Write a sequence for this structure.
């Protein structure tokens, strides 16, 4: 109870005075988290109508997912595309971020804004635009086309992460290495890159998730045998509320959370060393 | 090196040094080329093509027919009105709900902020589709919200919360909230605590300090966050498509419908251009309040 | 306008303790500030001086102790009711208001009538010589100008107590010295009780009626500038204010304090310390000519010059005595004193008037 009368800030307003704010904020945070998390227990519900709390527990929707070929095919496609996107977007974005940051050229600002346009242009336009162009070139419904489009979405994110990491990094280390006889390239790979390891990993992870979770472009650019998981889910949602989606959603949440937690653990181990 | 390039002591002249510096800068900039190529292929060319398509009619000749249709056809006007209404309402609700949350976060001691931030950041690494789906399930007639409310006696008969405007708004607010809270929180963090103490010292009660000093100083953050949310809402597709039940038609959905039903690239791209122009206009306004380039760009 | 409210109140702090976990920022501190006086809290960073000021302002709640303004106990009073004027180190001006609006803010809160309010604001701005800047925005002002706005805002509503937390530390040297004099004149004009925090001893000596030297959450000594400089009570004050040389003293059979065979003083009464030291201020030492007569009113030190540094208006000399003690001396650089004829390694004799020596318990810190 003494906590309630203690000061919450230098103006001596007490925690008790602010209790209403704490409750309200708590409610909002609860409501932010619940919709994401509620899918998980619901996916174990035996009923067609996804009850909460589930009256009977079962794994039928997971079985449904694993036994339906189109779901599995779509999952593999999504994983492939996301993985390839990660492999392409991370080096492209890192190089661009480093080049812009270090050169300090007056064209840098213009290039930076150019590379940020994927975040500004509404995704629907990117989707139909590429759909049109790819249609003319003949690479619609192809994995490479999709990877290209997803890469473009991920590059700005990678750049933002790497640029912010470069800000706290002491570039003088590269200059010292050069004064000691190393070429610029070698200095980058041997001195800078290892220190940016964690940020690059974070950027790669976010590139992966951006591609894996992406919906709109996938709807237009993937189709038939090459449909992504998200496209299939969207189609299923439009028609009826397929309970299998709950199981898939749970797996997606587990994947994303697992990757993020793994990243944090690596980061902590990295810092401790 | 020509004889005149060196001064009497054999050192490099200013011209040589500047040239070397320019060469180095050029090589560094060259690192951005792969990224530029990809962006050009996927953004510049397609969007440019769309732009030109919008000015062609069915016969392939230059015309403003597509744009004229937009002003004349009632259905288009309805789509614009719906899009702007939904975007405004979502932004307004996000401010209403997001401001207290951002304020709470800004008042928390450093060691707890990270934990609470997780709840705001969690949506970012959860798929948009998953969240939309979750709301669809929760907002059903016999879904979680209705059952919960009836059990508690808040209302008697199930309310139609999904497949209409209400459901769409609820879903969109949930998805857009972090986009408002994060920049707003950052702006609130930047407010100098001493200013609040000075206000108290000069006689302002905590409530007066909040309204007369804190809120005005947090307004740039509110504006920045609202503009980001608004712009995202304008182009939004998935959530209104799933939760709107066909009754809430936003620009992005109209574009898709035109392509699916009529394959009319002229009309679809014209709508797209309007959306793009609106987006840029709002963002240009935003960049006045949120200093985007100093936040993201290099060592300058 | 005659007001029955006093122009300024005294402050009495009694046994004030404030701790953060195991760290005691203030340890049973007691200070009495007389109404209308300019008291400086002087100490190094982390000494607790800002914590004490913040406690007086109401921005932290002490663990125990009492704070009174005049006859009222304000210990539990929230900061917005205390009615003290405060100038923060980084000025804390409201960036979204103009200069005029900043200064008018406390008057607006007190619901002062518009005409009177405008008059008071302009009077305050006149006093700090910023009357032409009333409509400027804060980011258009220089550091010195912002400082004056912060000052005007702090006294415009006629507080009975003024608190200042290192207000001049962000200014460059010349401006700082000008502002010190201006603040002193302002204090004389307003007559308000002022508590001033600084780590700069010269600032404290220049501006204060009294100085309270603080370290480790305790008041080490409180007194006028002369008292603090000439009669430091302990080794901390002696070394923090001014430069000093410390020389340990021996005791003779009667318990008196002895240096080099010369009894300097009797053991000061009422003191329990066993060891005592001599504190010598460098500027009080004079060179002694080789053939000069020994005077009984002076104390002599013989030794070798170890270092000689020309510093413009004075020259710094370090000298090692026969018993291995180091003395620091400051010599005038008048041509008559002929500093240039001295060199390191040379023998030299220095003297100090016995009235100028300082004795403190303990040794050097």
């Amino acid at each position: 109870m003494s906590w309630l009368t203690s000061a919450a800030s230098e103006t001596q307003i007490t925690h008790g005075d602010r209790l209403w704010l704490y409750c309200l904020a708590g409610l909002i945070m609860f409501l932010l988290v619940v919709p994401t998390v509620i899918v998980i227990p619901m996916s174990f519900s035996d009923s067609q109508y996804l009850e909460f709390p589930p009256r009977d527990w079962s794994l039928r929707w997971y079985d449904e997912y694993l036994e339906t070929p189109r779901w599995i095919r779509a999952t593999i496609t999504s994983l492939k595309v996301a993985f390839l996107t990660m492999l392409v977007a991370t080096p492209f974005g890192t190089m661009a971020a480093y080049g812009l940051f270090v050169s300090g050229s007056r064209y840098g600002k213009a290039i930076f804004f150019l590379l940020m346009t994927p975040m500004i242009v509404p995704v629907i336009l990117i989707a139909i635009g590429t759909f049109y162009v790819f249609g003319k070139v003949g690479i619609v419904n192809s994995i490479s086309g999709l990877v290209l489009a997803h890469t473009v979405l991920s590059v700005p994110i990678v750049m933002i992460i790497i640029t912010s990491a470069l800000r706290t990094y002491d570039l003088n280390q590269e200059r010292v290495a050069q004064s000691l006889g190393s070429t610029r390239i070698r200095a980058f790979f041997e001195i800078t890159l290892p220190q940016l390891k964690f940020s690059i990993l974070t950027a790669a992870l976010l590139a992966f998730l951006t591609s894996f979770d992406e919906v709109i472009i996938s709807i237009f650019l993937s189709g038939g045998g090459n449909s992504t998981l998200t496209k299939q889910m969207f189609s299923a949602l439009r028609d009826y509320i397929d309970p299998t989606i709950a199981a898939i959603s749970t797996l997606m949440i587990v994947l994303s959370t697992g990757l993020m937690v793994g990243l944090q653990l690596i980061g902590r181990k990295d810092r401790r060393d | 090196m020509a004889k005149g390039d060196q001064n009497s002591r054999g050192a490099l002249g200013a011209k040589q040094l500047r040239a070397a510096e320019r060469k180095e800068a050029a090589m560094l900039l060259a690192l951005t080329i792969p990224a530029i190529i990809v962006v050009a292929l996927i953004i510049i060319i397609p969007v440019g093509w769309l732009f030109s398509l919008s000015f062609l009619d069915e016969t392939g000749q230059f015309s403003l027919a597509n744009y004229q249709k937009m002003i004349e056809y009632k259905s288009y006007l309805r789509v614009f009105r719906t899009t702007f209404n939904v975007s405004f309402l979502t932004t307004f609700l996000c401010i209403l709900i997001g401001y207290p949350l951002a304020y709470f976060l800004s008042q928390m001691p450093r060691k707890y902020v990270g934990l609470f931030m997780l709840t705001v950041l969690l949506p970012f690494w959860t798929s948009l589709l998953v969240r939309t789906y979750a709301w669809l399930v929760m907002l059903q007639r016999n879904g979680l919200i209705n059952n919960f409310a009836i059990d508690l006696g808040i209302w008697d008969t199930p309310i139609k919360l999904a497949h209409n405007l209400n459901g769409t708004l609820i879903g969109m607010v949930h998805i857009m909230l972090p986009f408002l809270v994060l920049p707003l929180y950052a702006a609130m963090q930047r407010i100098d605590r001493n200013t609040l103490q000075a206000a108290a010292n000069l006689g302002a009660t905590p409530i007066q300090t909040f309204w007369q000093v804190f809120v005005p100083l947090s307004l740039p953050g509110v504006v920045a966050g609202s503009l980001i949310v608004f712009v995202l809402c304008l182009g939004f597709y998935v959530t209104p498509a799933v939760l709107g039940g066909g009754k809430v038609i936003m620009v992005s959905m109209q574009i898709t419908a035109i392509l699916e039903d009529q394959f009319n690239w002229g009309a679809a791209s014209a709508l797209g251009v309007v959306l793009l122009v609106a987006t840029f206009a709002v963002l240009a306004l935003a960049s006045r309040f949120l200093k985007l380039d100093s936040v993201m760009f290099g060592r300058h | 306008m005659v007001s029955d409210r006093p122009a300024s109140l005294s402050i009495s702090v009694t046994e004030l303790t404030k701790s953060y976990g195991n760290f005691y920022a203030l340890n049973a501190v007691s200070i009495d500030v007389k109404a209308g006086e300019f008291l400086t809290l002087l100490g190094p960073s982390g000494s607790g001086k800002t914590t004490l000021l913040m406690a007086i302002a109401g921005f932290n709640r002490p663990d125990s102790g009492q704070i009174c303004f005049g006859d009222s106990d304000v210990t539990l009073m929230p900061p917005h009711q205390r009615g003290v004027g405060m100038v923060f180190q980084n000025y804390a001006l409201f960036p979204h208001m103009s200069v005029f609006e900043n200064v008018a803010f406390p008057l607006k809160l007190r619901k002062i009538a518009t005409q009177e309010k405008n008059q008071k604001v302009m009077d305050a701005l006149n006093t700090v010589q910023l009357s032409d800047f009333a409509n400027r925005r804060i980011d258009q002002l220089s550091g010195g100008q912002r400082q004056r706005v912060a000052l005007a805002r702090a006294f415009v509503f006629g507080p009975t107590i003024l608190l200042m937390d290192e207000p001049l530390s962000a200014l460059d040297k010349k401006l700082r010295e000008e502002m010190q004099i201006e603040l002193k004149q302002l204090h004389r004009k307003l007559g308000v009780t002022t508590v001033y925090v600084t780590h700069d001893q010269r600032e404290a000596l220049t501006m204060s009626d009294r100085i309270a030297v603080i370290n480790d959450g305790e008041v080490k000594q409180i007194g006028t500038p002369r008292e603090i400089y000439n009669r430091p009570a302990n080794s901390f004050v002696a070394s923090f204010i001014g430069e000093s040389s410390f020389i340990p003293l021996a005791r003779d059979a009667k318990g008196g304090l002895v240096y080099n065979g010369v009894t300097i003083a009797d053991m000061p009464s009422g003191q329990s310390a066993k060891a005592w030291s001599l504190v010598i201020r460098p500027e009080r030492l004079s060179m002694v000519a080789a053939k000069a007569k020994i005077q009984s009113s002076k104390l002599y030190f013989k030794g070798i010059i170890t270092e000689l540094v020309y510093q413009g208006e004075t020259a710094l000399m370090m000298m090692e005595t026969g018993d291995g003690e180091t003395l620091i001396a400051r010599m005038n650089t008048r041509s008559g004193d002929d500093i240039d004829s001295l060199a390191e390694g040379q023998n030299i004799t220095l003297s100090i008037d016995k009235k100028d020596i300082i004795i403190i318990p303990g040794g050097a810190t």
About this structure: Chain C is about 25% helix and 35% strand.
